[in-house]
Amino acid sequence: MDYFVTEFTFTGTHVLCDITAVSHAYITDNALILEAIRRGIDESGATLCDMQSKEFTPAGMTAVYLLSESHVSVHTYPEFGSMFIDAFTCGTRCQPERIVETLIRALGPCEHRISIVGRGVPVRAGAPVGVPK
Fold it and tell me: Known catalytic residue: 75?
């Protein structure tokens, strides 16, 4: 039986980013970081379901955003002026790169390395896909 590819087929985009040389004022401003990611989620076209965060002593924060399309996570390391962020969305409807780009803009001058990984079955919209038996 053939199924038709939809925007939620077994495909996705995973954006991984290492951000360094962030000013102390910004890397320790958890509210700024969390709000920038939330804005990026809106700009990406993804649907936010929930968010959970944890602040660490003496410094640092981890947050996970649950999306209808998958997830976003961020881990800060203020002692190194650095953070990791990853944004994964299933299907082809969203643009997870926008989440990372919005955060980078909010952090001001910094250095970053972005990797974009296509995941799942490489397909084109509307093409029939066979289901393995």
Answer: yes
The active-site residue, picked from 17, 82, 90, 94, is: 90
The DSSP result for the chain, as a single string, is: -EEE--TTSSEEEEEEEEEES--HHHHT-HHHHHHHHHHHHHHHT--EEEEEEEE-SSS-EEEEEEESSEEEEEEEEGGGTEEEEEEEEESSS--THHHHHHHHHHT-S-EEEEEEEEEE----TT-EEEPP-
Active site residue 90: yes
Catalytic residue, chosen from 70, 82, 94, 112, is 70
Residue 129: is its pLDDT beyond 90? Answer: no
> Is position 70 annotated as part of the catalytic site?
yes
One of 68, 71, 75, 110 is an active-site residue; which one? Answer: 75
Residues 73-123 have pLDDT tens digits of 999 999 999 999 999 999 889 999 999 999 999 999 999 999 999 988 764
Percent of the chain topping pLDDT 90: 77
